[in-house]
């Protein structure tokens, strides 16, 4: 349930609550401002909701400026006011011979028809004079002679003053033109669901199950330039996904560029935990009798084993390997078992079909299918 934060000055919401808010504000054509620290998914959530709305309306989602007036597209127009002058919003003055007066031609980034969201990302990075130029556009949905089409909604996002983002304090008249909420840092459980659906490197997912506070490491007095955020882990996943776990030196150096040297060292230490496990063949040749890490006292080894099993499956991708892994998983807590199957699905698009041919999967199959529906 949403709550008010004594520091945030805005109602605090999680990602699911924010999605519902954006949809309601879109349908009522009112403006919403999303506050929150960097890298936690503000922009990503706006675009996810836009994709959902496009599907509901039977339209094709687009972020291309070429589609802003296309009635068959639902378009997200990303406007960075911090890169604009006041005149960039209003347009240029042109002499009209017939009326013998000056008219303003608004920029082609403003739609004349169609449906979508005009998204003012990082709005409070813009100087006050530029922010003031947006007053009329946000409240009255018009700027001079330009009128925002009925099918478009206005959403904005920005960092807070305490996030050290060099933002400008928003004037009260501009604040009052928006509804306000603050997006909370995601819980590891919610981020994990998202990460599995989006194919994030399983070593990162496993690491964050053990080191749960490492999902977001920014503090106002932080000296290191690189720090952990959900966005940083997404980028790190892309950078290391094709690097084998045996090349720990390379993984550590790359990880340090995204999440900082301290957490990079911890990530590598987690990957190195595999050295404390017996060879994967030991578990798969004796799935009914092999010794397993204690789920109460050796949780770090449990997560290392789960990611190792999923990683091994990624190199095989056959039903016999699924059957052997599932036999191991059936001896473990169901939460761990389903988690491992989710990881296996991220490395094999045909995993679900293969899994259905393995009787040992049993009720775990339904839980996995329900997760992805």
What topology does this entry show?
Layout: E1 3-4, E2 11-13, H1 15-28, E3 32-35, H2 42-56, E4 60-62, E5 73-79, H3 86-90, E6 92-96, E7 101-105, E8 115-120, H4 128-133, H5 135-140, E9 142-143, E10 146-147, E11 151-158, H6 172-175, E12 179-183, H7 188-197, H8 202-210, H9 230-240, H10 248-259, H11 261-272, H12 280-285, H13 299-316, H14 319-329, H15 334-346, H16 351-355, H17 363-372
Parallel strand pairs: 2-12, 3-11, 3-12, 4-5, 5-8, 8-11
Antiparallel strand pairs: 1-2, 6-7, 9-10
Q: How would you explain this protein's 3D organization?
A:
There is one protein chain. This protein has 373 residues and is of the alpha/beta class. The chain folds into three domains: 181 residues, Rossmann fold (3-Layer(aba) Sandwich); 90 residues; 96 residues, no CATH class. It has 17 helices and twelve strands. The strands form three sheets. Strands 1-2-12-3-11-8-5-4 form an eight-stranded mixed β-sheet, covered by helices on one side. A hairpin with a 4-residue loop joins strand 6 and strand 7. The longest helix has 18 residues. The chain starts with a strand and ends with a helix.
